[in-house]
Amino acid sequence: MSEMQSSNQEIKKKERYTLKKFFFSFIWLAVLLFVVDVLTKVIAYTNLTEGMSVKVPGFEWLFQFTLVFNTGAAWGFGGDNLVTQIILCLISYAAAIAIIVYYIKKGKTFSKLFTAILMICLAGDVGNLVDRTFALFPSLSTIYSKGVIDFIDITPLIPRFGIFNFADSCLVVGIISLLIYEIVISVKEDLFTKNKKKDGEN
Questions:
Q1: How many Cα atoms sit within 13 Å of 77 on the Cβ side?
Q2: Which of 98, 108, 168, 175 could lock onto 164 through a cystine, CB 3.0 to 4.6 A?
């Protein structure tokens, strides 16, 4: 009886460890954000008319929803140029592969915060990667046939800012967070080095 209880406790312990390990891998966060991106694009595509803006009552001053299809980079840079589309697609694939490989090789040494930030970046990259990939094959008649689906329009607040999507938001938040994280870590290391030198001198 005691052996069975001990075995059950060991199994539960392993299960808790596995769940904890999965949670702090933040892979679920990347998947969740990717799913949200896909769903919001599908909702925008099926409920909005291309080029027409839909204002949100009470938030007219802040944002509106405007469906556009972007075949270029940010702010439509590159336009409908096929070469540009292929290059952007390859860059997205390279970035996704680099993040995944980096995570597999060094993931165990990452802090929880850094891992979460990395997964946010991955979700944003893969979100637009899917659009760009299918946009290269318009004959497939998917919702991405015309290009990357953008619909979040904050031009009421910032004129001529451009229209973007949830994946773009993830990338911006992820990259800014990554820069802040690196700056904070760098400052901490500098302070630690200076304090260590002072201690050595004393």
A1: 5
A2: 168
What domain range includes position 149? 2-201
List of residues 6+ apart from 122 with CB closer than 8 A: 30, 96, 99, 100
SS (H, E, C) 106-140: HHHHCCHHHHHHHHHHHHHHHHHHHHHHHHCCHHH
Structure tokens at 41: 């694009």
Asked if 164 and 152 count as a contact pair (C-beta separation under 8 A), the reply is yes
Q: What pTM was computed for the model?
A: 0.85
State phi, psi for 163 to the nearest 5 degrees.
Answer: -115, 140
Q: Which two tokens stand for residue 124?
A: 């944003």
Report residue 171 as tokens. 């990338």
Number of domains in the chain: 1
Residue 97 has pLDDT above 90, yes or no: yes
Residues constituting the chain? 202
Find the mean pLDDT for residues 59-84: 76
